[in-house]
Fold:
Amino acid sequence: MRLIIEVEGAPQKVLGLRRTGSYDEIGPMIKEIASYIQEKGITPLGPPAYICHEMTLEAVQAAAGTGSADIEVVFPVDDGIEGMGDIQAYELPGGRMVRIIHMGAYRDSGETYTELYNWLAENNLSVNGPIREVYMNDPETTEEDLLVTWIYAPVG
Structure:
């Protein structure tokens, strides 16, 4: 059993890129927005995150099966940073959230999500906004079994 804690998330200015497609596009989309950030000389304030707009495990599974996932990747940035084209600057809302930490390959996160949703049900909470996966280390320089993902679920 993984540790699940409640946290108060602060609003955060981000640069985001959002598309419809396969979850396999998350990595390439992170690279795309990272290239934009580097070209513009922007210093991100933290690691990249994936914003999951499918609100239930069933919706995630359905989107995975059809390649119709609502995919968004973001990097936290300073106020005053502007986006361009498909890359938009906006404030990601804060609020009450629960956090669980997944260790290991991204494709193996299903068990972590099952624990999260079971915990939410046991505590009479429900997800009331997009779940965020914050990628704490780089899959290109980190072995799969050492990858760390902080998963935040806005709750009410």
About this structure: The first helix runs from residue 26 to 39. The chain has a mean pLDDT of 95. The radius of gyration is 15 Å.
